[in-house]
Amino acid sequence: MFSNNDKISPRQIKRLLIFDLFGAGSLLLPSRLAESGGGSGMWSICFGLILAVCYLWMLQICCGRMKQDYMAYLQSGWGSLAARFMYICYGLVSLFVSGWAAKLLADLVCNELLDDREFPVALLLILLLALYGGAAGLESRARIYEIMYWVLAVPFVIMLLLCVRQVQTVRWFPLLPVTSGTGWSQGGIVWGSIQCFAVFLPLTFLLFLKSHEQDESRTGRSAVSALLISGGAVAAVYMVLTGIFGSGALVREAYPVITLMGMVRIPGDFVKRLDAVMIGVWFFTLYALIAATLYYSVTIAIRALAGKAAQPAPGGSREADRSVRIRKYWFWGMTAAVYGIAYGFHLEPRMEQLASKVFYMAGLPFLVLVPLFSNMICRVRRRKHNPSDTGQGASRNNQQ
């Protein structure tokens, strides 16, 4: 039997992170990295992974120093008002990422399976599923993803292996950019590395898992494993796509990995629309990202505005019923906001482009710098209030 204590194991944390990290990266990065030409996109993936490992290391320092939760940790360094403001910013970032992911998944479903006219209905159904999953709690979603992991991973690996025989390794070369820009310009390695790093930013959710961890000592290893597996899978997808399509054709494809799935022929040809079957991999991975960001946007908002943890009170008391009811209202309100954001991105692509620029110029630095400066501030304050053993020993000798 399952324990219903809202705690998740390190293995479940690993599964959750893999689902959050892999979907959007494997779907969008290959065509964007192909702009640099040849196999140079692999350099961007490698540098992006290095940045993500450094970021994860910084997050682990934060998590190791937390005594209660991330809000209390921020308050100890920045003060109550600044900590609440930062939490609200985290909630806004999570809300807009949820809207962006919902728009991406609805676009994918409409382009591959339905029609563009069904976008509002498809988006609504997706968000109702995300609402159900988010309101069910973290533990319930972790159980589902743990079951779905191998169901999705095994067919995906088999499909990639079937595609390997079509790869022409000559298309991986040159291994340096063939475009004029190699830095911040479109198609540059630096810009590609930043895009790859942005794909791995759901690692930030580790900061809000303090009260849900079943074994804190193994969470870091689970996160590292999830990052390396996701990064390796994205790199494998990119190399296979580049070796089959070439950089020039890859740039023109909106979702090249879906196109690749449609080209695979299983011996016997008993599945006619294999791309429609394999789209389930990206449906569940993107759905996981939507549900996660929706859940954290609600949890963060309640913690920032109400000043207490967004968990129902224990027992069947009146306070517990009131807490559950408030959470439901928050989930419905946040889901409506996500629907508005996603539908706005669909109607006005320029709005999505503007939001993307704001994210890279403000959101990404915020997610990186806040934990960094928080670690520095808390370290300085800890040294000030807790002098070193050598200092204490010297002072005792002087007194004697």
Can you offer a commentary on this structure?
- The protein has about 400 residues and is mostly helical.
- It has 13 helices and no strands.
- α4 (about 80-110) packs antiparallel against α10.
- The relative contact order is 0.19.
- Residues about 310-315 and about 390-400 have low confidence and may be disordered.
Summarize the model shown:
With 400 residues, the chain is mainly alpha-helical. It is built from 13 helices and no strands. Helix 4 (80-112) crosses helix 5.
Label this structure with key terms:
about 400 residues; about 0% strand
Oligomer: single chain
Unreliable stretches (pLDDT < 50, length at least 5) are 310-315, 389-400
Number of helices: 13
Biggest sheet, in brief?
none
User: How many extended strands?
Assistant: 0
* Structure classification: mainly alpha
Radius of gyration: 23 Å
3D shape: globular
- Average pLDDT works out at 83
Beta strand %: under 5%
Helix content: over 70%
Strand/helix succession: HHHHHHHHHHHHH
**First-to-last CA distance:** 62 Å
Strand and helix layout:
Blueprint: H1 10-33, H2 41-65, H3 70-78, H4 80-112, H5 119-135, H6 138-164, H7 189-199, H8 219-251, H9 256-263, H10 274-306, H11 318-347, H12 349-385, H13 389-399
